[in-house]
Amino acid sequence: MDPTSLSKYCANCKTGGVNLKRCAKCSSEYYCSRDCQQAHWKQHKKLCGKPAPVPSSGSATAAVPPSLDGTPDKPFHLLSAETWLHNRSEKDTFKLLIDTYRMRARDNLNFQGIVDPDSVFGGATDSSQGFRGFLHLVEGKRHLLPAWWTPDKSLECVQYGLDTEEWQSLRASPDKGDVIDHYNDSYMPMQLRMFGQQVYGTGPGGQDGKTMMEAMIATEAGGFKKTSFSLS
Questions:
Q1: Please, which domain of life does this record's source organism belong to (predicted)?
Q2: Nearest one of 76, 37, 19 to 191, comparing CA atoms
Q3: Global pTM?
């Protein structure tokens, strides 16, 4: 727990105390629970992720912490080379694996009516069991994972997803809009879906993302304007 939260108050219900947690995206607001964070999001999203204003003294303020420790310049090139997760921090790798699974579970429900019985969509308390199955598939394609990945890291990854107060909670089921807002990147859902295709063998709804991959690589190379993904 952040010791500075002792003198802070929940941005939604104004409750004070030592059990407050900061917004994971911008760290500028505190909340006593996920319910309060969600209730306050309509108001907070207008400012979340925006740079803090420069004070009148002219001294620069600290940069807003990003959702990831690092963001590659050409993620679709890395996806094409099947190295999208390589050279990332443990936290970022865990987070992107969890979000790939959660995105696919929601897509399966939305586009095919398929429910993972081991997920929150199937009535489970959390999606940890379904996520373990996903990690087993990823580990069967070892080249997709960073060189430091081990069976112990798999266990750590699942444990990371069991923090119910954070974005990566396996009790939560974010949709496409939530993903875009969290990463402040309209193309992150597409990245997650394309990585999921490399794991599962097909894209959401059985689609083949080859044409879209080629288009995004051309975009990154400066070939033409960015295009939109067809799935909602």
A1: Eukaryota
A2: 76
A3: 0.71
